[in-house]
Design brief:
The chain has eight helices and 22 strands. It is of the alpha/beta class and 470 residues long. Strand 16 and strand 17 form a beta hairpin. It is elongated, with a radius of gyration of 22 Å.
Amino acid sequence: MVRNASGGPIAISERNPHYFAYRGKEILLITSAEHYGALINKAFDYGRYFKALHEYGLNYTRIYPGTLVEEQGMFMEGNVLAPGLALTTPWARSDVPGYVGGGNKFDLSRWDGEYFARLEDFLQRAADLGIVVEICLFNGQSPRPWKFSPLHCDANIQNVGQCPVEDFQTLRDKPLVEQQLRYVEKMIEATNRFDNVIYEFIDEPTIYKTQSRLACLWIDAMIDKAIETEQRLPKKHLLAQQLEYGVNYADDDRIAIVTTQYVEGTCRQVGGTPALDNIYHFDKPVEDNETAFLPMWYVCDKVAASRLEAWEFMVGGGAAFNQLNGYFTVDNPTGDDATNQKILSGLRNLRTFLEGLPFAAMARDRRTVKNVSVPAKINGISEPGQHYAFYIHHSFPNIGDFYCTYYTPGFGAYKPAIEIDIPEGAYDLKWVRPETLEVLREETIDGGRTTIESPEYPLDMAFVITRKGQ
């Protein structure tokens, strides 16, 4: 596993394996990002998109580089991952018409120089603003987008990719696997010089009927190809793989980062605090790198539900959070919308809150809070005896067929008594409104087993406990 606290590619902190280090210091990756098509959609102005993220203090984005392409109108109008005629991929177009998305089919024997020039510019502009790019090389295919992939037999002149959709991420179709391995090698060669890159292998590998055992054998082959490729290149980057039921690389030394999705388990995916509960002890950064799709899949207060997802996960010990945000479109690359402005500002507040703590010295804490007087979810991190930070809210998961958000049907008047157990001594206690970072009350408490009482709040609250003199 790569560990590096100064210089070079983003790495794992030497002080705390649950966090990243980049440009000489520990960092948190927090964002609300477009639907992964910013690179492959030539109509999308990623320069303006990056500037918008940077203005809100967001430092992370994620891309699908070309193996998954969605049909226009899928999920929403303006879906950036559905470029239509604006599609660019690693593979050059042939002179044979008939690609289902418009234009000529792809020639898998030739790389597209224009695409790779765009890729270099994309990564450089992100780097200039301190934005880390997670390159998700593959996504599990499902029937509707599969025919739009350049690796589908009807989309390329080599007729590669004749397998059923569920076998895209297995070793069964040997000509397809050869092209996939070649693609992994090319993408890593083309991006190795950049420090602001993380390689993720496949998102949702068993989303559509693919057996876990077969998917894992295929993932192993892709990981081995990536490692083999980087061994002969100057820079070594972090490798990531998503956690699913039946697909778990948390104990694999080749994989440095465990990625998760959503706030609970849904459609074989394990995300949010359940993922932290189950794999935090493997001492790797854990990401929540996809939420339900804003704004369509949120059934109540979008701003509040978004805040709950991010604060719970990151204050609970997460290393990175990426909200899937449909407000960013070709026509609106800055995501300019009144609701979205509140959502992005809320994520900036989260980063400010956590960076105001010595978070690199802190780890997930499930022992300090002993009891809460009302039903609640509470998560936190601590440096025992020195610093504690907790986030509490009163909502519950709204689980749909393929996604999960928090349901916030209304707001109450909460004022819970929270029983805690901390070492003896004198401590400062600060209550913070997450929505605005307003400090509602400050007080001094004694250590030991004690009960603290919150100021009244409508939905969620954060509190920080610091030993006197720290």
